[in-house]
Amino acid sequence: MPEFxxxxxxxxxxxxxxxxxxMIPICYVPWTSLKKLxxxxxxxxxxxxxxxxxxxxxxxxxTLDSCDQLNVLDLSKSQHLTTLxxxxxxxxxxxxxxxxxxxxxTNFKLPCTLVDVSSLTAAILETSxxxxxxxxxxxxxxxxxxxxxxxxxxxxxxxxxxxxxxxxLALALGRCPFPSVKVNDLTLETTLSSVEFPGxxxxxxxxxxxxxLTLHVMEPGTVPLLIPIMNIDYQNxxxxxxxxxxxxxxxxxxxxxxxxxxxxxxxxxxxxxxLLGMVSMLSHEYNVSIVLSSTCRIRGRSLECY
Length: 306
Description:
Layout: E1 13-22, E2 36-43, H1 46-54, E3 61-65, E4 72-74, E5 83-87, E6 94-96, E7 102-108, E8 113-116, E9 122-127, H2 137-150, E10 156-159, H3 161-173, E11 185-190, H4 197-205, E12 212-217, H5 239-250, E13 258-262, H6 269-286, E14 289-298, E15 301-305
Parallel strand pairs: 1-2, 2-3, 3-5, 4-6, 5-7, 6-8, 7-9, 9-10, 10-11, 11-12, 12-13, 13-14
Antiparallel strand pairs: 14-15
InterPro entries: F-box_plant (IPR044997), LRR_dom_sf (IPR032675)
Protein name: (rape) hypothetical protein
């Protein structure tokens, strides 16, 4: 990188894509006004990252997309940093971020230890399918449960279908104490496959204070199953299937006040109305507010009923 690039003290937002070239800053980077930093396809050493962070005193947001070579991401001196997003990156393997409020780890490719995320209020977790290919089932479960333990006080959590599938398989093959989490707003991305049930069941059973549950039914083909099980014809998804899924989940919870179900475009207008009637009965039976929404459009509007 040219030296003048590192000597801009007025920049507030910066996005870089280096095509996997190493980022080697000079000893001092006067990015004193920088608030938002996004790095894509970069080779980031621990030393390089430390240098950059030490010279950005008011940094509020960091995004790493497809970055590698970073082992320890130490944000303990970044007191203004509230948002950390990491996607498709080989690293870090350790995160020290006591001040961040929002964490997104999507498609993370190496086991990651959350050393300190004590200020978190919201987090999104999505594993990569290649993450655990060289680990034993017991080790997989230990990695996932350690992450959940660090997230035990987070108010809002989102887990992807791949995370739920991985957790389910690990639970079937290994045994470890499952941590209790204090989440009150839980989002589960699901394919409605039974392979996700064990993970979902454990999460709900160990989330005694959850009040809002959002089910985001994923588009067909967007989440490859880890094992071939329970093939679902999404284009002809039956209302009974959705209701059965919701009913099973409601049995695992005692404090739920609201369930939101986002169906994408699986059920047509007539099917949606049928489902609405069935869900209304379910709502009265369990004394829970249930919201249905679909991206299908009828007469120019999206379907959404409360």
